Amino acid sequence: MELLLVVLSISLQLNSTKMNDKKRQQIAWYKENQPLGKSLGYPDCCIQEFCDQPPSWMKGRNPSKDDKRRMNAATLAGWFTGFVPCSDHAKQIVAGKLNLEDLIENRDTKWFLFPMENF
Ligand SMILES: [Zn+2]
């Protein structure tokens, strides 16, 4: 009985360490990318979703239908813009109800215009 409790407690600790690592990684990723996304003029919902799913987590898993749609929405005439919109915005873009560039607001002038000026 005591042994079982020890095993249970160790496995709970391991689980929470794993979760904390993931959470820490997510927080670090957010701190790094949130100000960048803001400066690039991306909407909060899209920044949040991008930060919730660091690209390193997507490697090694098959892209879901949603991943593909978001990547599709991030691409203009075969050019990957680097701006991956959130699921909701990706749906609207793919349905032709919205343009990716319409989502950009208050972009810092130090960046190139979106999409590229000569695009
Ligand atoms: Zn969005």
List the helices and strands and how they pair.
Layout: H1 2-39, H2 44-52, H3 55-58, H4 65-73, E1 75-76, E2 79-80, H5 87-94
The structure holds zinc ion.
Zinc ion binds next to helix 2 and helix 5.
List keywords for this structure.
single chain, 119 residues, mainly alpha, two-stranded antiparallel ribbon, 2 strands, binds zinc ion
Q: How would you explain this protein's 3D organization?
A:
The protein is 57% helix and 3% strand. The chain is mainly alpha-helical. It has one domain (2-103). A two-stranded antiparallel sheet has the order 1-2. Helix 1 packs antiparallel against helix 2 (44-52). The protein is elongated and about 65 Å long. The N and C termini lie far apart (69 Å). The mean pLDDT is 85. Zinc ion binds at residues 43, 45-46, 85-86, 88-89. Residues 43, 45-46, 85-86, 88-89 line the site of zinc ion.
Given the helix and strand composition, which structural class is it? mainly alpha
Counted by DSSP, the helix tally is 5
Major sheet summary line = 2 strands, antiparallel
* Low-confidence residue ranges: none
* Helix content percent band: 55-70%
Tally the structural domains: 1
Identify the overall geometry.
elongated
Cα-based radius of gyration, to the nearest Å:
19 Å
Give a short overview:
Helices cover 57% and strands 3% of the residues. With 119 residues, the protein is mainly alpha-helical. The protein has one domain (2-103).
